[in-house]
Write a structure and sequence with these properties.
283 residues, alpha/beta, Rossmann fold, 2 domains, six-stranded parallel β-sheet, three-stranded antiparallel β-sheet, 40% helix
């Protein structure tokens, strides 16, 4: 049985010298949640996501990822190898499951040509465990999944070195790598590509093999302005927003007006999609 929350943060505070960025923040996310973090530049959005990713542990309070869950953080300026190609980066992202597939094939070859002293029962048990991992991750279709993700994110040619790409193209490659890694908690601290966000989420679900019973992923993305970025968050399926306190009524009206303007909606935005969680002294 899955734990109630995939991630919990309790009474977390973070300071840089005398500057308090976060104070007594408590958050918890259900499986499958899509969260937009809204705040001005310098409000602490990146700090919050780094804490959630486990990259910043110098905090007061507790931040806990559910046992067995995997987290992936995509930074505003992701670290990439400028000499390696697009495809090489994608292959690096799927290497853990590719290693499992390679081990499965190695055992298969070994059983086809047994050596003296081989323990067939032990090998068969290992193959069974490997088969479960491969099936759960769509491991038999890694090349096809890389193609699907590349097409969905409109990546440059496979053989293009990242040193020749623009900053936006590199960020798309980093996002594609994150999707292929199939995390349970995906933290996106970057300007989202101008495309249908639901399409990107569908890629994430597809590469994860949702039909195989895995829990739906949690996606958290940042936004610095109460305008088109809010619409971007909505396109990516954001169900609620964590934001700097601007006043419940004013902020809610801004979100509704913004979504209707940018998305061309002629009907009220569903209230269930505009949940608000206000925090103070920072975000």
């Amino acid at each position: 049985m899955a734990p109630k929350f995939i991630f919990e943060m309790s009474d977390v505070s973070k300071s840089f010298g005398e500057k308090v960025v976060l104070r007594n923040i408590s958050l918890s996310f259900f499986y499958g949640a899509k969260i937009g973090v809204v705040g001005e530049n310098g409000a602490g959005k990146s700090t919050l996501l780094k804490i959630m990713a486990g990259l910043d542990k110098d905090i007061d309070g507790t931040a806990t990822l559910a046992k067995g869950m995997r987290v992936r953080y995509v930074a505003q300026e992701p670290e990439v190898d400028l000499e390696k190609t697009v495809r090489e980066h994608l292959r690096f992202a799927v290497k853990p499951i590719q290693d499992v597939v390679d081990r499965f094939n190695e055992i298969s070859e070994r059983m086809a040509d047994p050596q003296e002293g081989d323990d067939f029962d032990k090998l068969m048990n290992e193959m069974g465990r490997l088969q479960e991992q491969i099936d759960a991750s769509n491991g038999w279709e890694l090349d096809r999944l890389m193609d699907i993700a590349s097409d969905a994110l409109v990546l440059p040619p496979d053989d293009a070195p990242l040193g020749q790409l623009s900053g936006g193209e590199r960020r798309r490659v980093a996002l594609c790598m994150a999707l292929l890694e199939q995390p349970d908690l995906l933290l996106l601290d970057l300007k989202m590509p101008k495309m249908d966000g639901l399409q990107v989420l569908q890629v994430l679900y597809r590469v994860r093999g949702e039909d195989r019973g895995r829990f739906p992923p949690v996606v958290v993305l940042t936004s610095s302005e109460l305008d088109e970025d809010i619409a971007d968050a909505y396109r990516y399926g954001a169900q609620s927003y964590i934001c700097k306190p601007l006043g419940h009524s004013d902020f809610t009206k801004t979100v509704h007006d913004t979504l209707q303007y940018w998305l061309g909606l002629n009907r009220p935005v569903p209230a269930r999609r505009i949940g608000m969680h206000f925090v103070h002294e920072g975000l």
